[in-house]
Design a protein that fits this description.
By secondary structure, this protein is α/β, with parallel strands linked by helices. The chain has helices at residues 51-62, 80-85, 92-102, 112-116, 135-140, 156-173, 213-230, 234-237, 244-253, and strands spanning 6-11, 26-31, 37-38, 68-72, 177-179, 192-196. It has one domain (6-253).
Length: 260
């Protein structure tokens, strides 16, 4: 039995500002058994998606009743050591609010680098260590720390730029969207699901053809979600093999869908 009828893969970008047109921000979608296709941004002077525009597009689409799974390529939370350093409650919603209060990267004309260098926000009060990695990143192998900026394959910028938009979508849609695994490891039947993904797990499974690397990453996420669900195998990936202590930790740090 298929869990979803629509599949969306997003390769994210933390470049520039929330309203900047970003060639690294790509979206692919598929319905049923149809092949994934690239989704262009709404007509505007901007050629590519903006982070703000993408969030509003997701909200509009997830207000529909078609059961949809969305895979987004950036970290959804931080390592447990971050919570302990800053004495934060073990609550994802509390984390989102606290992060956004210090890293207002969803605000107009704000670059991630502006918060890092103290031009705005208060990022200095909410820092992490590049040596810290979440359990899921360790299990994934080559996944970088969410605090490791300026290196090849880094997700730090996209994570720090994207987390406020997760809160934005969550606030707009409430319980109609299941943010996995923070809302529970087993998504309710018929509920939309938004999950963290890591395209490196799947990009080698498919020919890139004429797609750019960003396009191919979004395509690979979308196609893997679709194929795995239509093979009635996606449910098992919502239940990674974790011991009780590991599961408790992952409920705070989050988990990358597809990591065993």
């Amino acid at each position: 039995m298929n869990l979803f009828s629509r599949y969306i893969g997003i390769d994210y970008s933390g470049a520039k500002t929330p309203t900047a047109s970003l060639p690294g921000l790509r979206v692919y979608a598929a319905s049923g058994g149809e092949s994934p296709v690239q989704v262009p941004p709404p007509p505007s002077p901007r050629q590519y998606w903006t982070r703000r525009g993408l969030a509003e597009w997701l909200i509009a689409n997830l207000r529909e009743t078609v059961p949809t799974v969305v895979g987004i390529d950036h970290g959804f939370s931080f390592p447990l050591a971050y919570f302990e350093r800053h004495k934060l409650a073990h609550s994802w919603d509390a984390f989102l609010d606290d992060f956004c209060a210090h890293w207002p990267t969803d605000q107009e004309n704000v670059y991630v680098s502006f918060v890092r260098d103290g031009t705005c926000g208060n990022g200095a009060a909410r820092t992490g260590d590049t040596r810290w990695r979440r359990l899921t990143e360790i299990r994934a192998g080559a996944a970088k720390s969410v605090f490791q900026f300026g290196v090849t394959g880094q997700v730090a910028a996209s994570t720090h730029a994207g987390i406020p938009w997760l809160r934005h979508v969550r606030r707009a849609l409430g319980t109609t969207v299941h943010f996995w695994p923070f809302d529970g490891w087993t998504p309710p039947s018929g509920r939309h699901v938004v999950a963290e993904v890591y395209p490196s797990l799947w990009r080698h499974l498919y020919r890139s053809d004429s797609r750019t690397s960003d396009q191919h990453d979004a395509y690979a996420v979308c196609r893997w979600l679709q194929e795995t669900d239509r093979a009635a195998a996606l449910a098992q990936f919502f239940q990674p093999q974790l011991g009780p202590a590991e599961r408790n930790k992952a409920e705070i740090e989050g988990w990358i869908l597809g990591v065993g």
